[in-house]
Each structure stands twice: as structure tokens, then as C-alpha cells.
Amino acid sequence: MTQAVIHTQLRLMAAYPDTLIARKCGPQVAERAAALALRALQAGKPGDEEYLDQLGELDFWLRSDANCRNPGTTADLIAAGLFVVLRDGLVSPPFR
């Protein structure tokens, strides 16, 4: 499930540049984040080596610059979606 959540976040980031990044760093930086997310998506499927390499580069870039490039708006949408599917019983939490 973790891979699916990450892949969904990449798809959202690639299609809709994150507005928190845009507010904090400017629209060009938000567009750059979207381009890096798209690059990861185009590198292959979740689990493929090139996909993971590009995902790592995106993660490093997002965390650089004192974490100012945090895709918070996209993360909020992912969290809201996860809440709904958990609440409605469409997925189960991964209890140990």
C-alpha cells in the first residue's frame, strides 16, 4: 500500500504543482517539483530501479533548502483521501 500512496502523490504533484511550494518558494519552484515528479513517473513502475532512483532524487531535492520545498498541500490531499478510505473500510490499516 505504501508504494500506491507514494505513486498517487507523485501523480498529483506532476499534474498539479503544489500550492504550498508555490506560496513559499514561487511558482517556478513548484513547477520544478512537478517536473521532477513527472520524471519519476516516466522512469518506470513503482519498484523499478530507475523509478526508485528518480524518486530518491526528488526526495533529496524536496528536503534540500531547509525543507522549504515541502509539498504540504499535496500531502494534505493524500492524508484526506487516506482518511476517507480508512473510515469507509475500503482499506485496512497495517496492524502488526
What order do the SSEs take from the amino end to the carboxyl end, as H and E?
HHHHH
Number of separate structural domains: 1
Summed up, the helix count is 5
Low-confidence stretches: none
Give Rg in angstroms.
14 Å
Counted beta strands: 0
Shape: globular
| Class derived from helix and strand content | mainly alpha
Helix content: over 70%
| Major β-sheet annotation | none
**In angstroms, what separates the terminal alpha carbons?**
15 Å
Overall residue-averaged pLDDT value:
93
Query: Strand percentage, roughly?
Result: under 5%
Question: Mind explaining what this structure looks like?
Answer:
The chain has helices spanning 2-15, 19-25, 27-42, 49-63, 72-87. The chain is mainly alpha-helical. The protein has one domain. α1 packs across α3, α2 crosses α3 (27-42) and α3 (27-42) runs antiparallel to α4. The model has no long low-confidence stretch (mean pLDDT 93).
List the main descriptive attributes of the protein structure presented here.
single chain; 96 residues; mainly alpha; 5 helices; 0% strand
Topology:
Layout: H1 2-15, H2 19-25, H3 27-42, H4 49-63, H5 72-87
Helix pairs in contact: 1-3, 2-3, 3-4
In short:
With 96 residues, this protein is mainly α. It has helices at 2-15, 19-25, 27-42, 49-63, 72-87. Helix content is 71%, strand content 0%.
